[in-house]
TrEMBL record:
InterPro entries per UniProt: IolE/XylAMocC-like, Xyl_isomerase-like_TIM-brl
Residue intervals of the Xylose isomerase-like TIM barrel domain: 25-223
Protein name, as recorded: Sugar phosphate isomerase/epimerase
Keyword set includes Membrane: no
Organism: Paenibacillus brevis
Keyword Isomerase set for record: yes
Length: 249
């Protein structure tokens, strides 16, 4: 079965701030099956759920600050259940020592076990610094080897930016990977760009997603060279959808 395609709403953050409902409506009109949240713009869980139900959008996941899970885990669980989400993603943290990272991983493992009791999953979303912050340490590899319940949402763009050989790295960590961030790289500026318009091997990444039976591919774009965010993310959807249909045919 083909994976569903979601948009990480950080990509269109200004539109979401201006009118959250209308932004979600345009995401649906672009073709997306669902969204990955990056904040709720003051809306209650009931309001968010009503928007999703009316528009026919699903929740792929939500990016949530680590501090929110630390300070009010039960309230966070209640909100996420209210919108129909079962994947909670911490979108990157930074520490200066391996000991600090180990403390974070231990706490994430504790949280992940609690979420599992509610039928929910905890993910960590990488950037590039996890591979360079502690000399000689691949923090994601360290995380996998020092936990059992933390899943990975792999941002393929940032993994490529870290100068890792992406495909072997994915193979080595495949048992923990549950989501991909599909983000392409502009050839000259190395900024993120429309999926399918850059230099990263998106078709190969989708082939890996097929092997891993990933349920969602999450589009994200953070820089925009030629198009405004809503137009750019619509292009991302069309071009990724074409790749998915080719790979899964």
């Amino acid at each position: 079965m083909n994976p569903q395609i979601a948009l990480q709403l950080w990509s269109i953050q200004e539109a979401c701030k201006e009118n959250f409902y209308e932004a979600l409506k345009q995401v649906k009109e672009s073709g997306y099956d669902g969204v990955e949240f990056a904040g709720y713009h003051g809306k209650s869980a009931a309001e968010v759920r009503s928007y999703l139900d009316e528009l026919g959008l699903k929740v792929a996941a939500s990016h949530l600050p680590y501090e929110a899970l630390q300070k009010d885990l039960e309230g966070t669980v209640s909100f996420e259940k209210g919108i129909g989400n079962k994947r909670l993603v911490v979108p990157g943290v930074s520490f200066k020592t391996l000991e600090e990272w180990r403390g974070f991983i231990d706490d994430m493992e504790r949280i992940a076990k609690r979420l599992a009791q509610e039928g929910m999953e905890l993910y960590y979303h990488n950037h590039a610094h996890e591979f360079t912050e502690i000399p000689g340490e691949d923090i994601l590899d360290y995380m996998v080897n020092n936990s059992r319940h933390i899943h990975l949402e792999v941002d393929l763009y940032w993994l490529a930016c870290s100068d890792h050989d992406v495909l072997p790295w994915l193979e080595a960590h495949k048992d923990r990977i549950g989501l991909f961030h599909m983000k392409d790289m502009h050839g000259s500026s190395r900024e993120s760009t429309e999926v399918g318009s850059g230099i990263l091997p998106m078709k190969e990444y989708v082939q890996v997603a097929k092997q891993l039976a990933l349920p969602w591919l999450v589009v994200e774009q953070e820089e925009f060279q030629l198009y405004q965010p809503l137009e750019a993310t619509a292009i991302c959807y069309r071009q990724l959808k074409a790749i998915v249909e080719e790979v899964y045919s």
